Automatic annotation (TrEMBL):
The keyword Oxidoreductase does not apply. It comes from the Bacteria. PANTHER family: CARBOXYVINYL-CARBOXYPHOSPHONATE PHOSPHORYLMUTASE, CHLOROPLASTIC, PHOSPHOENOLPYRUVATE CARBOXYLASE. CDD domains: ICL_PEPM. Gene3D superfamilies: Phosphoenolpyruvate-binding domains. This is Isocitrate lyase. Keywords: Lyase. GO terms for molecular function: isocitrate lyase activity. Its EC number is 4.1.3.1. SUPFAM superfamilies: Phosphoenolpyruvate/pyruvate domain.
Amino acid sequence: MTLSLKQRLAQPGLIAAPGVYDMISARIADAMGFDALYMTGYGTVASHLGLPDAGLASYADMVARVGQIARGTRTPLIADGDTGYGGLLNVDFTVRGYEAAGAQGIQLEDQEYPKKCGHTPDRRVIPLEDAARKIRVAAQARGSKDFLIVARTDARTALGLDEALRRAEAFAEAGADILFIESPESEEELARIGRAFDLPLLANMVEGGRTPVLSRAELETLGFKIAIYPAAGFLAASAALDSVYGAIRQEGSTRGWPGALYPFEDFTRLMGFERIWEFEKQHQDAR
């Protein structure tokens, strides 16, 4: 039986959540038995729209992806909700929409709109009081307390760690279930965050980003409960595509390409063709 995100949080051990951004990545991850999946905004905007994660995707773009991934998987899904796509009414609408779409948690951040990816420069945050009010509205908007609010602050990069910690404390008081301080820049900063709060803490492990990528044991020791890996999937997939497409461009063939390919038969089953085959057997006399 799959535990809900809230149930899993009550158990010991780190939750390692891979970033998913389309139905291929989601189904591969779902079959592996993770405790949670993380719908990455960066990867979803890139794969769906071919655009940078800079506030260009709308609520309608993103909630449709939430519903698609949640319906197509069994693993609890945490979904990136950016800034809530506007003011307080937008936050209320976004939380209700993500919950109805099947996510078990939503990540909301305190950047100015339009937002930017958390590991890129020149991010600016809204006033603390406004940010806390958004989290309060989000906590009130959900239909069930099993739907969890992940409150993220991007204050570390522009305003320093002290301000980021102050904001996380305000978010906890406003009703957040999970705290997410984006872009700490050293293991020492991660340790300080881990000592500061009683609520579950989320660490964002971005390969090539501002934060050092640590092991499961190191993150647990520092006091973190969730580690998300939003970029690992699309970076790995992009490297593989670049390699195999390069071989096709250069050689006109994949014959002799040294990389690994997911077996075609396995992929066919991953996409659900077995049900199609069974359906056709049952109804072949009706043709």
